[in-house]
Amino acid sequence: MRRLLARRMKFHLFGAFIVSVGCAALYKFGVAEPRKRAYAEFYKNYDPMKDFEAMRAAGVLESAPPK
């Protein structure tokens, strides 16, 4: 029974480290990278002036009334 806490703590700290690195990797490659690619694809062909004119024509903006 000697050093039972130290032995178990070493095992659990190592296990917790492995699990946390695994979760971080899953989030990075499962969520963050696809999100970055989606944003890059969206802004590749995005025209802010065209979007502004569409919102202006729809009457969404109070500071820029429709023509």
Span of the ends, CA to CA: 84 Å
Name the poorly predicted regions.
Answer: none
Structural class by secondary-structure content: mainly alpha
Percent strand equals under 5%
Task: Give me the Rg, rounded.
Answer: 26 Å
Principal-axes geometry comes out as rod-shaped
Order of helices and strands: HH
Provide a count of the helices: 2
The percentage helix is over 70%
Give the overall average pLDDT: 94
Number of strands: 0
Q: Specify the biggest β-sheet.
A: none
Keywords: Membrane, Mitochondrion, Mitochondrion inner membrane, Transmembrane, Transmembrane helix
Membrane topology: Single-pass membrane protein
Protein name: Cytochrome c oxidase subunit 6C
InterPro entries: Cytochrome_c_oxidase_VIc, Cytochrome_c_oxidase_VIc/VIIs, Cytochrome_c_oxidase_VIc_sf
Task: Explain what you see.
The chain is mostly helical and 67 residues long. The relative contact order is 0.06. The chain has a domain at 31-58. The termini are far apart. The chain is 78% helix and 0% strand.
Quick tags:
67 residues, mainly alpha
Please describe the topology of this protein.
Elements (H helix, E strand, L loop, with lengths): L3 H41 L3 H11 L9
Care to give the gist of this entry?
By secondary structure, this protein is an all-alpha fold. The protein has helices at 4-44, 48-58. It is built from 2 helices and no strands.
